């Protein structure tokens, strides 16, 4: 990294004219006065902005044409150590950062306005200098995919990689991941690596790391802080709690969902508070039990993709279910209505699936609340037809669990037993 | 109805011994002191409880073995008029109550503990005597189905029935409906009857009407109050706002979802406040615009069921999509991830669907927030493949809209145009 990495044209000219460069602590007068550190930019950025990291950890882009005055803060040293690899501090814990792609490892292409996944884990690490004060970070790129392209084979790859570190010197593992399917991945890891001795936290961002207003830095800092202080194991997702930058929420990996397309606080623990909050760098533990700490670690890293998620709705054609049955699926997770219902027009197909030995579990498209199939006649009929109510499991997480369970056993009774066995906090009693 | 309808064995004995009967205003000392009116019960109730309607409108069941003392309130007249049909009050507005079944028209079978749909609209009406003070209610049973068994043909039946009353003396129409699929029905009515001159409100309950703690009475009272005072047209859903009995929320019929399996406050307007609140019998208007009042009424009561809702997830097998394409579906609503994405492994099938002229719309499984497909490369690819982003339409509502649109036209350009035309508040700009 040079003194001006990523800057060219007008923005490079601006830095040189004002005698400032990357890592300088500055005060900038524009619409208001900003205090912060000049940050590097990435290739093909526009030449109209400079990026400033504020004390909050928040990066903002300032349009140089609107800057009235720049003042270098002469008393502070440069904070980003340029052209030098950060030396390990033996008093700090060691954290492994695995990057899989996603917005957190993306940059925006200012020519097209689109975001592409290109940052390496090293770049990600060095773009957030605060991390070096909390932990020694070893970074590694596993692959580089948007999370909508993450497939179950990627889950296996991540789990197998992590499995190698069960007896390592690391205090915890961060997985940088796209947000779209982060909760699917976190639940697969929760099941396959249940009891893993150190905590694992998936972290993403809703705005790319090189972008003004990115939430990547704060999410990474929060995740790192969490890993070094949480005193538990288990698999979590760390993201902004809401739109402000004060609080990072750590959600249990099987109880979380992306509930908003674009907000920073898009992830929510369903029906409960997040397990941990990091509020202004202080960690708060909301976990009701030490659920994870007494689990024995016996990795089961297998999967079977022949599991279907069937979301019932008025007008759902039972022949679509028949096609699934005929295609040799091993399990069907229904996303029923209300307490766990599907229309009577589905019963004959459900009977057929039951006779074929296909596991059928019921969840609710309400998302929040518990499935209860003994309240109405219709629910009782479905129980008689072999559908198993899956408590308050989130439909998507029940799907992942069924993929994992049917990947590890073909025995029908065992499948049923493990589906109803609480492996990783995926339902409450 | 007799003086003791529904009471037998111990509970009948109890009433007679204490010289009280249905409609009496009483004070009862048990764990605390309750004041209210003795209510009728329905056939096959147990004989261990009596049902009291509290002033709040709330019904509770009291176990007679725990009652220490009963005092009849001699100064008040019987409030339920027994064996008499309520006379019309010409100073009150007229409301039509159509019953379609569901928990609100159900009773619990105390032998099995299960709930069955059996109350007639008349029984429903007479079980809530407060209604007669707000409006003259004409009640009619359309059919009696749990809402998971409501099919698009039932939507047509309801719409056709309502369509007959476009020039009637009614101030509004209540539809008693099961809660499971109430938002699907409300959105179909919103599209097919857009501009209907009087307001329509669907109302359900999470506990059956004859049950202690039923929310049916308050929801019905709130809905009736709303219809007589709202001064708008449009299609709404009225249910408890939360667990307490103070507030009934009226949600716009296309922006609402059942978000909890069992809570009274299960229904929520997605991403916004409910349009109206009825707080302690006072009506509060939160509508940002008079959206509904200037729509021209041109009923379009047709439907095509060949529309599929495809919820994408890691491991979704594209051959399931191929089966839908091969089965001559007219439209596919994707419930994509995040801002509106599906995996690259789906692209070839999407291309095939596009070439076949199948309408494809994109919504998000996040449920809240807007689809935006221009942010990432992958979203742009999907736009190129012909997928239409459907703003912030709720996936289930987009499905119903596509069924309605493709039922009314086969012209591809027209389908696209109407899907993106705001008919009934189904998305915001």
TrEMBL record, chains A, B:
Q: List the Gene3D superfamilies hit by this protein, alphabetically.
A: 2.30.30.520, 3.40.50.40, L-asparaginase, N-terminal domain
- What Pfam families is this protein classified in? Asparaginase (PF00710), Asparaginase_C (PF17763), GatD_N (PF18195)
Q: Which residues form the signal peptide?
A: none
What the entry lists under InterPro entries is as follows:
AsnA_fam, Asp/glu_Ase-like_sf, Asparaginase/glutaminase-like, Asparaginase/glutaminase_AS1, Asparaginase/glutaminase_AS2, Asparaginase_C, GatD, GatD_N
State a single Gene Ontology molecular function: ATP binding
Q: Where is the L-asparaginase N-terminal domain?
A: 94-286
Q: Quote the EC number.
A: 6.3.5.-
Q: Which domain of life is it from?
A: Archaea
Q: Give start and end of each Asparaginase/glutaminase C-terminal domain.
A: 306-419
**Matches recorded under SUPFAM superfamilies:** GatD N-terminal domain-like (SSF141300), Glutaminase/Asparaginase (SSF53774)
Q: Which residues form the GatD N-terminal domain?
A: 21-71
- The reaction(s) this protein catalyses: L-glutamyl-tRNA(Gln) + L-glutamine + ATP + H2O = L-glutaminyl-tRNA(Gln) + L-glutamate + ADP + phosphate + H(+)
Q: Does the keyword Ligase apply?
A: yes
Subunit details: Heterodimer of GatD and GatE.
Family that this chain belongs to: Belongs to the asparaginase 1 family. GatD subfamily.
Q: What is this protein called?
A: Glutamyl-tRNA(Gln) amidotransferase subunit D
The lineage, from the top, is: Archaea, Nitrososphaerota, Nitrososphaeria, Nitrosopumilales, Nitrosopumilaceae
């Amino acid at each position: 990294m040079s003194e001006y990495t990523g800057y060219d044209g007008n923005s490079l000219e601006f830095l040189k004219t004002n005698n400032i460069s990357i890592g300088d602590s500055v005060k900038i007068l524009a619409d208001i006065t900003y205090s912060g550190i000049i940050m590097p930019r990435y290739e093909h950025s526009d030449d109209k902005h400079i990026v400033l990291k504020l004390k909050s950890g928040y990066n903002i882009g300032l349009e140089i044409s609107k800057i009235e005055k720049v003042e270098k803060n002469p008393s502070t040293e440069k904070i980003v150590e340029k052209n030098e690899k950060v030396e390990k501090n033996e008093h700090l814990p060691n954290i492994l950062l695995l990057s899989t792609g996603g917005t957190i490892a993306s940059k925006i292409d200012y020519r097209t306005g689109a975001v592409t996944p290109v940052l390496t884990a090293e770049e990600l690490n060095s773009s957030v200098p605060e991390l070096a004060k909390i932990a020694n970070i070893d970074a590694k790129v596993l692959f580089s995919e948007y999370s909508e392209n993450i497939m179950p084979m990627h889950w296996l790859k991540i789990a197998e990689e992590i499995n190698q570190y069960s007896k390592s010197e690391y205090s915890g593992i961060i997985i940088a991941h796209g947000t779209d399917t982060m909760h699917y991945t976190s639940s697969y890891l929760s099941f396959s690596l249940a009891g893993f001795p150190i905590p694992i936290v998936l972290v993403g961002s809703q705005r790319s790391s090189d972008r003004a207003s990115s939430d990547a830095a704060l999410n990474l800092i929060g995740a790192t802080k969490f890993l070094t202080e949480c005193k538990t194991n288990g698999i979590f997702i760390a993201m902004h709690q809401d739109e402000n930058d004060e609080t990072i929420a750590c959600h249990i990996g099987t109880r979380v969902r992306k509930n908003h397309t674009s907000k920073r606080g898009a992830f929510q623990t369903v029906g409960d508070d997040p397990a941990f909050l990091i509020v202004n760098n202080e960690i708060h533990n909301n976990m009701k039990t030490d659920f994870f700490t007494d689990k024995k670690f016996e990795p089961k890293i297998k999967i079977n993709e022949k599991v279907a998620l069937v979301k019932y709705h008025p007008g759902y054609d039972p022949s679509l279910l028949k096609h699934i049955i005929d295609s040799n699926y091993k399990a069907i997770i229904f996303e029923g209505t209300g307490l766990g219902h599907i229309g009577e027009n589905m019963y004959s197909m459900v009977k057929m699936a039951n006779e074929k030995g296909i596991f059928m579990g019921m969840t609710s498209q309400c998302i929040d609340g518990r499935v209860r199939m003994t309240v109405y006649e219709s629910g009782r009929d479905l129980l008689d037809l072999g559908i198993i109510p899956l408590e308050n499991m989130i439909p998507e997480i029940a799907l992942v669990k069924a993929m994992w369970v049917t990947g590890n056993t073909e025995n029908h009774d065992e499948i049923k037993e493990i589906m109803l066995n609480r492996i990783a906090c995926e339902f409450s009693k």
